[in-house]
């Protein structure tokens, strides 16, 4: 395959975005691509592939966005945690991609930035260094003082905070709505979408295609994309390649709609908080599950719900009480949803994007930070598959790499 540099791929993506914004997709290939998984990643890939003129079928085991893309905090960012620089730049491209989706499809994105701080002086000093690195890498981030913090967020209690990192480019979405809008746009452009359709097995046929054996019948395709999220054995079973994952759970609490309390993403010790356009406040806990044998056993099947409502209520109250320290106005907020999300987290912390070395018709798309990355991943994967090019920007994320070195994501 010929190499294509990142700038070229992005130019091509921007050109095809402009084209699709004003015309329905023109089928440029009769090659049939199935996208397996109707989370935000599968939805974005299906949309961009259809827009690129491919024949696309999206297959989802349950309902759209019912796994990680529902139990996510949905903060769109390229923060200090996105290491090294190339991965940071990829996330910056993700942010730009959200601006394109917002203007092309009208997907609501709440921009305004994030405010982040830690408890200890040592960690705060490290944060200041990390923000200096961010600035070098092109982020307009800065450390700001209490007076400026209060000007930005008058209803947040910053008691004891001497400085916080302000990253003005960040935003947040309603991930379920965004997924549904991407899928609706794909259907509009000609994609077929089948929910309640689990792909169970893949076998080759005599034409060099893969036959997907699904709960809703067999489907022969020229290529399939596995956007199956945090399912540890899906890639081995369906693409012949075991991707080591260290998926971790996180509890997400969503309140009923509240009057406007905050405008930015608050990344405070113990909890992440943002308020959607519809007034709902989203809380992401920062403590992981206790590292005990009993918990391991309970979490073995990666449940999205607590076994009993009483436990869900307890966890919601615990997380709400941390959040209320910072946003006292949410004291009376009722809880609408408590969900345990599982991060699709390849062992080294980076996305897995590319053709399986074990099956040339299988393309893998498994990643954490998938909300930040969904637009750029959709654009570049669609370019690779529809044009048969290898995008240089994806070189660090190929499935055949050595996963031993753990990085931050
Ligand atoms: C607690 C938490 C907080 C997070 N916070 C952020 C954040 O702030 N910012 C950010 O950018 N990212 C965040 N993430 C990560 C982000 O949410 C994920 O990277 C993203 O949602 C992954 O999307 P996906 O489509 O790959 O996976 P999913 O949404 O899990 O979708 C995979 C889909 O595949 C389907 N599927 C699986 N197997 C089959 C099969 N055999 N046949 C058919 N369908 C199948 C599943 O049913 C599922 O719907 C967070 C994640 C969690 C859990």
Brief overview:
This protein is 33% helix and 24% strand. The protein has ten helices and 22 strands.
Topology of helices and strands:
Layout: E1 3-4, H1 6-22, E2 32-36, H2 40-51, E3 55-59, E4 75-76, H3 85-105, E5 109-111, E6 114-116, H4 121-136, E7 142-144, H5 146-152, E8 164-167, E9 171-173, H6 175-188, E10 192-194, E11 199-204, E12 210-214, E13 217-221, E14 223-226, H7 234-239, E15 249-255, E16 265-268, E17 271-275, E18 281-285, H8 293-298, H9 309-326, E19 335-342, E20 352-356, E21 359-366, H10 370-387, E22 390-391
Parallel strand pairs: 1-22, 2-3, 2-14, 3-10, 6-16, 14-21
Antiparallel strand pairs: 4-9, 5-9, 6-8, 7-8, 11-12, 12-13, 15-18, 15-19, 16-17, 17-18, 20-21
Bound molecules: flavin-adenine dinucleotide.
Description:
The protein is α/β, with parallel strands linked by helices. It has 2 domains: 3-72 and 176-244 and 347-397, FAD/NAD(P)-binding domain; 113-171 and 246-342, D-Amino Acid Oxidase, Chain A, domain 2 (2-Layer Sandwich). Helices cover 33% and strands 24% of the residues. It is built from 10 helices and 22 strands. The strands form 5 sheets. It has an 8-stranded mixed β-sheet. Strands 10-3-2-14-21-20 form a 6-stranded mixed β-sheet. The radius of gyration is 21 Å and the shape is globular. Residues 1-23 have low confidence and may be disordered. The structure holds flavin-adenine dinucleotide. Flavin-adenine dinucleotide (FAD) is lined by residues 36-42, 59-62, 66-69, 71-75, 198-199, 227-231, 234, 250, 252, 284, 341-344, 367-372.
């Amino acid at each position: 395959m010929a190499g294509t540099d990142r700038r070229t791929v992005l130019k091509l993506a921007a050109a095809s975005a402009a084209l699709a914004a004003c015309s329905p997709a023109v089928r440029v290939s009769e090659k049939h691509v199935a996208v397996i998984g109707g989370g935000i990643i599968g939805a974005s890939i299906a949309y961009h592939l259809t827009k690129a003129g491919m024949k696309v079928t999206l297959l989802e085991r349950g309902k759209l966005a019912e796994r990680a893309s529902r139990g996510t905090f949905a903060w769109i960012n390229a923060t200090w945690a996105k290491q090294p620089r190339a991965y940071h730049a990829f996330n910056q491209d993700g942010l730009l991609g959200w601006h394109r989706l917002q203007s092309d499809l009208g997907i609501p994105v709440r921009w305004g930035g994030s405010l982040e701080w830690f408890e200890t002086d040592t960690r705060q000093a490290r944060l200041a260094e990390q923000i200096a690195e961010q600035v070098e890498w092109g982020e307009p981030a800065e450390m700001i003082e209490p007076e400026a913090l209060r000007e930005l967020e008058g209803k947040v209690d910053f008691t004891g905070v001497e400085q916080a990192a302000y990253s003005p480019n960040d935003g947040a979405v309603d991930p379920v709505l965004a997924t549904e809008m991407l899928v609706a746009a794909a259907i509009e452009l000609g994609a077929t979408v089948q929910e309640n359709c689990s792909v169970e097995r893949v076998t080759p046929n005599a034409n060099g295609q893969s036959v997907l054996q699904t709960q809703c019948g067999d489907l022969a395709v020229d290529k399939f994309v596995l956007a199956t999220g945090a399912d540890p054995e899906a890639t081995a079973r369906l693409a012949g390649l075991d991707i080591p994952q260290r998926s971790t759970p996180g509890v997400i609490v969503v309140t009923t709609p509240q009057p406007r309390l905050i405008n930015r993403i608050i990344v405070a010790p113990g909890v992440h908080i943002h308020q959607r356009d519809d007034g709902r406040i989203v809380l992401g806990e920062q403590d992981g599950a206790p590292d005990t044998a009993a918990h391991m056993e309970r979490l073995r099947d990666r449940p999205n719900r607590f076994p009993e409502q009483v436990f869900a209520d307890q966890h919601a109250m615990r997380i709400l009480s941390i959040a209320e320290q910072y946003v006292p106005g949410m004291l009376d907020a009722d809880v609408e949803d408590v969900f345990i999300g599982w991060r699709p987290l390849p062992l080294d912390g980076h996305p897995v994007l590319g053709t399986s070395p074990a099956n040339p018709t299988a393309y893998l798309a498994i990643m954490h930070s998938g909300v930040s990355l969904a637009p750029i991943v959709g654009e570049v994967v669609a370019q690779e598959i529809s044009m048969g090019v290898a995008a240089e920007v994806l070189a660090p994320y190929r499935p055949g790499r050595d996963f031993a070195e753990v990085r931050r994501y």
